[in-house]
Amino acid sequence: MSVREERKQQSRQAIINAALLLSTSGRSFTNISLREITRMVGVVPAAFYRHFENMDALALEIIDQVSLHFKSLSYYLGQTYSYLPEAKIEHCLELVLNSIDQNPQQWMFLITERWGGSNILREAISREINFLTQDLATDLKKVEAFRHTPQQQKLCVLAQTLINLSFNWAMTWLSYRQQLSGEQLKQQQKCFKEQTILQIQLLFHGITYWRSEKSTES
Question: Which residues, in sequence order, are CB contacts of 168 under 8 Å at separation 6+?
Fold first, then answer.
């Protein structure tokens, strides 16, 4: 890659990072302007159009990058469940919480724009979540405890529930860091982890012993 091309990529990524920061600072992406983004980056507004056709194109690029992170996390969790049967739920939860700590803006963007963004944003996020649901359901099928579940649909419901819960966990986890500190923060996080692990255990226990009405009748 030439120096010129490298600088172009850096400028493009700077615009993406600025938009992500502005849209996760208490405002929706639809409420920030092109000029605000370029002002933060330190370029003239016309420079924006060297990288993106419009704000919608920028939003879709952000979703693509955010989705790559979630796909990577989902894959790693799936591999952990599938090939490390000794791994505990606690370990997988730690992976999720570490992801939230290290990438808070990406989590916040997906959560806030999922319901409050423009139609283009909502539809794009919905598609990505559907892909994540299918991938997670496929990985769950490899888990020994779930192999008795004959219908992929049931695992899709479980995967969808876990993904929706993970967004709730992220909001709660991030709020603790904003509102608490010191020993109080540690204690609240400890309680949160215990409650979350119990939630997951109850979900897994339910599907492990789930039987259809036909199976029960027979």
Answer: none
